[in-house]
């Protein structure tokens, strides 16, 4: 994932394009497939950009009765169906990882975050990665939750 000046506001576009390109190379042989994107930019790619790219852009949904009456007390945050993960597409990809490098005092430090695909045909077992430094967003009870919150 490389971006130019001013490209940071469109990180979700670059993330989705990168994952889509990698998806074309994934095998379709029944094994879970993981795509890992690396980010070595001066300004880090945000967690929200990954959520928007993979799960869809966040919107505020306010129910109405169709005649102009709004019910703001029942408003909720939801996601548009424009993310890479969807019930109809990209089921060969079990998860997408984001590998970040941060400049430490004496060396680069790396961090990995995994976003599991709730619609994967062959899901990646959340126990595959047992290192405590790896954050994982996994499907749990019909919702996505951080593994340490499950």
What's the number of domains? 1
Lateral strand order in the biggest sheet: 1-4-5-6-7
Ranges with pLDDT <50 over ≥5 residues? 1-8
The biggest beta sheet reads: 5 strands, mixed
Explain the overall architecture.
This protein is of the alpha/beta class. 15% of the residues lie in helices and 31% in strands. It has one domain. The protein has 2 helices and 7 strands; from the N terminus they run αβαββββββ. A 5-stranded mixed sheet has the order 1-4-5-6-7. Strands 2-3 form a two-stranded antiparallel ribbon. α1 crosses α2 (47-55). The model is unreliable at 1-8 (pLDDT under 50).
In terms of topology, how is this protein built?
Layout: H1 11-23, E1 33-39, H2 47-55, E2 58-61, E3 76-79, E4 93-103, E5 108-116, E6 134-140, E7 143-146
Parallel strand pairs: 1-4, 5-6
Antiparallel strand pairs: 2-3, 4-5, 6-7
Summarize it.
The protein is an alpha/beta fold and 150 residues long. It contains two helices and seven strands.
Features:
alpha/beta, 7 strands, five-stranded mixed beta sheet, 2 helices, disordered N terminus, 150 residues
